[in-house]
Design brief:
about 80% helix; flat
Amino acid sequence: MHAWLMLLAAGALEIVWAIGLKYTRGFSALAPSAITIAAIAASLYLLARAAQSLPIGTAYAIWTGIGAVGVAIVGIVAFEESANLARLACIALIVAGVVGLKLTAPI
């Protein structure tokens, strides 16, 4: 269970760093760049630790799924990006894939 919590935290940090990229201004803004780089490092570290116990394909797919869905939702809520039916359906498919991978993982 500990590996799954690390993977969840890694995915949450992926959302932080992906959104942080929007504020780095090409890594010319110091504070947002430092936060983004720290979130990248922490996210990758937690992913690597989780992958010690979980199958790498499952861990990586779930990590990217959490990030993709999280960033898409933040984009819709905070940045007024499109929330049309097709986009929401695609987000739901990613969520279904992540849940399916979790349910079928051997650990």
